[in-house]
TrEMBL record:
PROSITE patterns: ZF_MYND_1, ZF_MYND_2. One of its GO terms (biological process) is methylation. It comes from the Eukaryota. The keyword Protease does not apply. The keyword S-adenosyl-L-methionine applies. Coiled coil: none annotated. SUPFAM superfamilies: HIT/MYND zinc finger-like. Residues 272-310 form the MYND-type domain. Keywords: Metal-binding, Methyltransferase, S-adenosyl-L-methionine, Transferase, Zinc, Zinc-finger. This is (Mediterranean fruit fly) hypothetical protein. GO terms for molecular function: histone deacetylase binding; methyltransferase activity; zinc ion binding. InterPro entries: SET-MYND_domain_protein, Znf_MYND. PANTHER family: SET AND MYND DOMAIN-CONTAINING PROTEIN 4, SET AND MYND DOMAIN-CONTAINING PROTEIN 4-LIKE PROTEIN.
Amino acid sequence: MHRIPLILPSPSAYWDTNMPEYRLLRNTLNAENIEETEKFLSILDNEAEEFLISYNSTAEERLKCAIQLLQSVNFVQGLRLLNNNIMRASKDSKSYLQALRHRGSWLLKQFELEAGINDFTMFLYLNEQNQDYEELCEVHGLITISSYVIRHYEMTKKHLHAYNKYKAKLPEEFFKKRFEIIDLNIRSFEHEFDNFDHVIPKCDISWQDLPYQGFNINKNIEQMSSACCYVEYLHKNNLVSRVVSNVDLPKASIVLLEKPLSINMNVSLVQCEFCLYHSNNIYTCLECRYKTYCSLKCIENDKDMHQYECPAYKNLLLHILDARDLYRLFVKLSIHLNNSTFASKVFRNVTSAAEVLDIIERNSETEEDYQMNSFMGILRDRPNYSKLHRMQYSTLVATAFRLSLFIESKTNIVDIFFQKLQIPKAEKNCINRCHIDASSLQLTFKQF
């Protein structure tokens, strides 16, 4: 959270924790706070841009040094330099592509086959216009062998076809000298794919991460929707919600939640922020170069949601405010309001943000879908803020304020998700700030 405090209206020296969010918002909107936040965002923009420019200017030297170190006893240092290039170098730079290729080759030598395949897959994805047949033949050949070893036969057949295509474009003498070992390995199993349609398809679950007997008695992991049910009951005049099992689950068995409302994760440098897979070979978003992923598949699957997060990651704001979870939750909430709530006729005649917020609060109890009801609960339920220390409360208010100003000035989220409301843009921004404040207060209260 951002610990630089906002300027408070006199005569109070502290925030009133009993103040409604709407009044809290109005008290933060003064010229000093807005000017300070705008300078803060401008500094972040400049620093983030200068850092990437500075890094790209030395990326080629880092790559050369890394290749030399990989062949020595200091290979760990060389691998670290390759990882840095893969995470930070520009996606269009040669140093980024070559770092992927060299790390992929090194990983295959260490028999980390799936990790090596991921590097080569990313290399091919970013290098579609590459006419270097030698590089392409090598990469497709290595993927063919590796995917065959781990029994990804569909992938093997696909890259075997590409390997033979580029193999035919290379001089025969050069090919024999350069790719003799690769070709010998491929020819040892190539005949198996003459009748590939009869091969039993392989399960998509990673062979390295699945125990022989599965996680439980068998390899089937119950999804939460089929293994559990949600119940509500009165206890001492309070409505209590719980999740209970509706099937016979062995003790300590694993149950997966398909779509968690939010995920809080503080080790992004070694963990995929999309699927939470722990990996020593991480990738970053090709645009912002900061959000971390474990594979190209996760990058593609997260593209629709991350397009709204990308500017905030690139600006470094989410890292400094420690607000990645909060920001994604706000985007999900905005999408839900746009798709389900703002389409209602009741919003056609409203003229102010106060009316919109009042309607949302009154209608939030009618949500039938469990996950959507959880979203609306963020706006409906008010924690007991008096249990927070004054510094904690001040910190979360400052975080919400600065994040909401960033959304207004640096993104088009308000224009996209609040377009159905027939109210002035200033009023839409007011709703945006209240939602950010509510989400921030809820999440931070739970953390404390």
